[in-house]
Amino acid sequence: MRILSLLLFIFSLNLAAQQDLSKEEVAQFQEKMTAKANELETLQANFIQTKSMEMIADETVSRGKLYYQNPEKLKWKYTEPQDYVIILIEGELHINDAGDKSVRNTASSKLFSKIAKLITGTINGKLLQDNENFDFSYIKENDNIIAVIIPKDEHLRQMFAEIHMQFNAENLVEKVSLMEESGDATVIEFSQIQWNKEIPSSVFQP
After folding, report:
1. Is 129 within a domain?
2. What are phi and psi of 197, to 5 degrees?
3. Does Signal show up as a keyword for this record (predicted)?
4. Does residue 75 lie within any of the structural domains?
5. Counting CB atoms within 10 angstroms of each CB, which of 35, 49, 190, 204 has the fewest?
């Protein structure tokens, strides 16, 4: 009984820490995010990506560096546990898997185009403006705001049942969680975020 009471107490604290935003708070947050997205020219950050699977106890942890340049230049560079680079530029997705290179035209596939838009949208914050393809709700947790995003597209929803974007007090994305219908989840945490610092053009060379 003592253990049950303790668990209920902890659960009630967690509920108290999370609150839905009012319509006025949502409008204010969206206005700030729109202004922030319009100011964004470049973004650099380190990231830790943790993949958990419903059927496997162990988690897979990857580390790397992210580079973004407005409007749609994105480099996702994994350095641990192995070298793997994804570059999205001018409608093409370039992949370098430890020297094995490939390229795909995102415009040739509607689904692939939506995935590319989803990836860049989570980085620059413009995903929150895409009411055509996603439903949104917002939660306040301490000083952070979490956007809960549900894809409307059936094929996209089969990949990601829910997307959570966590913003800090400066309205910067510091965590993205991708939840699959299977129960698998990928959590990406950003650190050492650099805003509007010049990025050499060579960084985005495939």
Report:
1. yes
2. -100, 135
3. yes
4. yes
5. 35
- Read off the CATH number of the domain in which 54 is found: 2.50.20.10
Three-state SS sequence of the chain: CHHHHHHHHHHHHHHHHEEECCHHHHHHHHHHHHHHHHHCCEEEEEEEEEEEECCEEEEEEEEEEEEEECCCEEEEEEEECCCEEEEEECCEEEEEECCEEEEEEHHHCHHHHHHHHHHHHHHHCHHHHCCCCEEEEEEEECCEEEEEEEECCHHHHHHCCEEEEEECCCCCEEEEEEECCCCCEEEEEEEEEEECCCCCHHHHCC
pTM for this model (two decimals):
0.82
**What total number of domains does the chain contain?**
1
Is 185 within the bounds of a domain? yes
- 132's CB contacts (< 8 A; 6+ apart) are 152
Q: Residue 5 CA to chain centroid, in angstroms?
A: 36
Determine, yes or no, domain membership for 170.
yes
